[in-house]
Write a structure and sequence with these properties.
Distance between the termini: 34 Å
Helix content: 40-55%
Enzyme class: transferase
Pfam families: HATPase_c, HisKA
Strand order of the largest sheet: 3-2-1-6-5-4
Number of helices: 9
Structural class: alpha+beta
Catalytic activity: ATP + protein L-histidine = ADP + protein N-phospho-L-histidine
Number of strands: 13
Protein name: histidine kinase
Oligomer: single chain
Strand content: 15-25%
Radius of gyration: 23 Å
Order of helices and strands: HHEEEEHEEHHEHHEEHEEHEE
GO molecular function, one term: kinase activity
Length: 397
C-alpha cells in the first residue's frame, strides 16, 4: 500500500463519477465505480459496499478480492463505526463468515467507513489490505470518508438506490397479485396431473406400454413442477427462511448438478451445455436435495429471458473456501440496477416470455432463501458478450 493515497487517481475518479451523475446516471453502476475508485486510490487488495437492511447487510458492489462476495449477506458493521466515521478492523476480530473466509487468504485488515443520509446509516464502504501492507494513515481514512460521502449523496437522491426497494409500500398490491397468479400456477399442474391420472385409470388397457409410459412421464414432470411451486409459496409465506429445511451434510456438487439437469423439462434440458463441469471437486456442505430446485429456477429464469433455442452454459469450480456453479445465458442481459432487485419477492423485470413462463416473481427469491440458509450466497451479473450469469457459492465441507 502506498504511503499516501493516489490523489491524481482520486481526482480523475471524482470527475468521472460527477460526469456520470450530471449525465443522469445513478444507482448501482455509479456505486460500483465509487467502490472501484476506493480500491484504486487507497491501494487495497479489494473493496466493497454493504447496503444495510434493519437486521443485516448485503454486499451489492465489490471489486478485487471482495468480488466473489457480491450478493453475500453479512453482519452490519455500524455498531463498530459509532465512535467515528472510519475504522480499521483486523478481520480475525469479526464474527462473520465472509471475514473468516477472506482472512484466510491475502487479506488481513479492513478499513471501513459508514455511509449516511442525515442520521440514517445506509451502509458501509470497505477497503481490504493484506498482511504485508502498511497501516492506513489519516490521509487514507480521510479519503475513504470522502468517498463514503459520495455514496451517501447517491442514496439521498434515491435514484436506483437502495438496491432493495421496500416492500411495505406495495404490500396489499403484491398480496393480491400473489393470490391471483399463484392460484393460476397451482391450477395448471393439478389439472394436468388429474387429467393424465384419469386417463390411466379409465383407459389402462387401451393405452399400451408407450401411452402408459408417456402419461407417467408427464405426471412425474408436472408433480415436480407442483412440488417446486409449493416450495416457492411456503418460502414466500415465511420470513424466517427455515420452511422445508432439509438435513445438511457433505455432498458431491457435480453429481447433484448432473442429476438436477436430468430432472429438467426436456425442452429446457436440451439447451443446457455442460461447458466445464469437473468430474471431481471437493465436497460441498449443504442440502443436496435443494440443488434441483435452485438449478431449475435459475435455468427457467434464463430460458424466460433468452431467444428460443439459445444455449445456457453450466459450469462449476472451487476455491479454498467455497464451491460455485454458474449458469450463463445468451439473452437480453440483466440491467445493472436490477441485479439485486431481481431477488426481491414478487419483483419481475419487464420483458421475458411471460406467455410460456407466467409467474408471481418468487423463483429467484426462493433461490436466495435456499442458498443463504446453507450459508452460501447467489448473485446475478451481466455476461460479457451479452446475456446474464447467475452464480451460486456454497461452503466447502
Amino acid at each position: 500500500m502506498p504511503e499516501h493515497p493516489d490523489y491524481p487517481a482520486l481526482t480523475r475518479g471524482q470527475i468521472a463519477v460527477l460526469d456520470r451523475i450530471n449525465a443522469g446516471e445513478a444507482g448501482l453502476p455509479v456505486l460500483q465505480q465509487i467502490v472501484r475508485l476506493a480500491q484504486e486510490t487507497l491501494g487495497g487488495r479489494g473493496a466493497g459496499f454493504a447496503e444495510y437492511a434493519p437486521d443485516h447487510g448485503r454486499i451489492v458492489a465489490a471489486t478485487g478480492a471482495c468480488t466473489p462476495a457480491l450478493g453475500r449477506r453479512v453482519d452490519r458493521a455500524d455498531t463498530r463505526l459509532r465512535d467515528g466515521r472510519t475504522l480499521l478492523i483486523p478481520l480475525d476480530s469479526l464474527n462473520d463468515e465472509f471475514a473468516k473466509q477472506v482472512q484466510g487468504g491475502d487479506v488481513q485488515r479492513m478499513l471501513g467507513a459508514r455511509c449516511e443520509v442525515g442520521d440514517t446509516i445506509v451502509g458501509s464502504l470497505h477497503v481490504y489490505f493484506g498482511e504485508g501492507d502498511d497501516e492506513p494513515g489519516p490521509e487514507h481514512h480521510a479519503v475513504l470518508e470522502l468517498l463514503a460521502g459520495y455514496v451517501g449523496r447517491l442514496y439521498a437522491a434515491r435514484d436506483g438506490l437502495p438496491a432493495h426497494s421496500g416492500e411495505q409500500v406495495r404490500r396489499q398490491e403484491n398480496r393480491d397479485l400473489w393470490v391471483a397468479v399463484t392460484s393460476h400456477e397451482l391450477r395448471t399442474p393439478v389439472t394436468v396431473i388429474k387429467g393424465y391420472a384419469d386417463t390411466l385409470s379409465n383407459h389402462w388397457d387401451t393405452l399400451g406400454d408407450v401411452g402408459r409410459h408417456e402419461a407417467v412421464r408427464i405426471i412425474n414432470t408436472r408433480a415436480g413442477e407442483l412440488a417446486r411451486l409449493v416450495d416457492r409459496l411456503l418460502s414466500a409465506a415465511s420470513e424466517d427462511g427455515d420452511v422445508g429445511a432439509a438435513p445438511a451434510g457433505p455432498f458431491d456438487l457435480t453429481e447433484a448438478l448432473r442429476g438436477a439437469v436430468e430432472e429438467l423439462p426436456a425442452d429446457l434440458r436440451r439447451r443446457i451445455v455442460l461447458d466445464n463441469l469437473p468430474g471431481e471437486l471437493p465436497k460441498a456442505y449443504g442440502e443436496r436435495d435443494s440443488i434441483a430446485t435452485i438449478l431449475t429456477e435459475l435455468a427457467t429464469n434464463a430460458e424466460k429471458h433468452s431467444p428460443p433455442g439459445s444455449i445456457v452454459e453450466l459450469c462449476a469450480g472451487a476455491d479454498a473456501e467455497t464451491l460455485r456453479f454458474r449458469l450463463a445465458d445468451r439473452g437480453a442481459g440483466i440491467r445493472p440496477e436490477h441485479v439485486e432487485r431481481a431477488f426481491e419477492r414478487y419483483w419481475q423485470a419487464e420483458g421475458g416470455d411471460r406467455r410460456h413462463h407466467p409467474g408471481a416473481g418468487l423463483g429467484l427469491y426462493l433461490v436466495r432463501r435456499l442458498v443463504e440458509r446453507q450459508h452460501g450466497w447467489v448473485s446475478l451479473r451481466p455476461r460479457e458478450g451479452g446475456g446474464t450469469t447467475a452464480e451460486v457459492r456454497l461452503p466447502r465441507a
